[in-house]
Amino acid sequence: MALLLTLAGCRHGGGTHATDTPAGTANATTAATAKEGTARMTTQQQHDDYVKRWDAWPIREGHSPERAWQGVLHLLRTVPRFADITPEIASQALGMPSDGLPAPHRGYSARIHDDWALGWSFDDGLSVPEISVDVSHRPQMHSRTYFDPAPVCDGPTDWAILRPELEAMGFVNWYRTGPLHHIAETEHFALTVALLPSTQLNGRLCIKGITLQPMPQKVRP
């Protein structure tokens, strides 16, 4: 999500989605000038500046994690191959715009709660292209601090409900790269699901993010 916000700021110094990103709201200078200024700031100053931009970022109604996760399921059900997914198709499925980042990046991010944001990106420049959707917490100095995801675990967005739906589409052989990262593959898609446990919701495993890649994993034709 930090990448989404940084890239968005480079494009939207006053564009149509400037108010949808804290970087776009606060950054009225050129990207080069901002980068030079950041390099002179201490770690604490950079953090304070980022928090200031976050606090100035308006909360947007109409975007929800549940819609985003259901959008990923919709893509998997209706698009045969990753190569058939366009930014416009992904945008419609996820319920968010696709023009919130500077080219060649496609995606969008919005603050949806006092302490949480939701965003997605379509990165076709990687050796293996991917679509990633995730929620992120208000910036903190200690990035490993746990924040309960209950405010963005709305509706049927927990792992116990999502996993059977994915398995019905062929994602059955799950393996893990960590206790909260699950990966499965089909003939045409590789899927990574990141989770966050919610103590406020009696230990429910809420969805932190989903990354979709093509199979076999090669550069998109």
Describe this structure in words.
Helices cover 31% and strands 24% of the residues. The model is unreliable at 1-19 and 21-35 (pLDDT under 50). It is of the alpha+beta class and 221 residues long. A hairpin with a 3-residue loop joins strand 5 and strand 6. The protein has 7 helices and 7 strands. The protein has a 7-stranded antiparallel β-sheet with strand order 1-2-3-7-6-5-4, with helices on both faces.
Quick take:
The protein is an alpha+beta fold and 221 residues long. Helices cover 31% and strands 24% of the residues.
- Element order, helices and strands? HHHHHHEEEHEEEE
Spatial order of the strands forming the largest sheet: 1-2-3-7-6-5-4
Average pLDDT metric: 79
The strand count comes to 7
Distance between the termini: 27 Å
- Given the C-alpha coordinates, what overall shape results? globular
How many helices does DSSP assign? 7
Q: Unreliable stretches, pLDDT < 50, 5 or more residues?
A: 1-19, 21-35
The secondary structure category is alpha+beta
Strand content: 15-25%
Q: State the major sheet.
A: 7 strands, antiparallel
CA-atom Rg in angstroms: 18 Å
Helix content: 25-40%
Fill in the keyword field for this structure.
221 residues, 31% helix, disordered N terminus
Give the SSE map.
Layout: H1 2-11, H2 22-26, H3 31-39, H4 43-55, H5 65-78, H6 87-94, E1 106-111, E2 116-123, E3 130-137, H7 159-167, E4 175-178, E5 181-185, E6 189-198, E7 204-214
Antiparallel strand pairs: 1-2, 2-3, 3-7, 4-5, 5-6, 6-7
Helix pairs in contact: 5-6
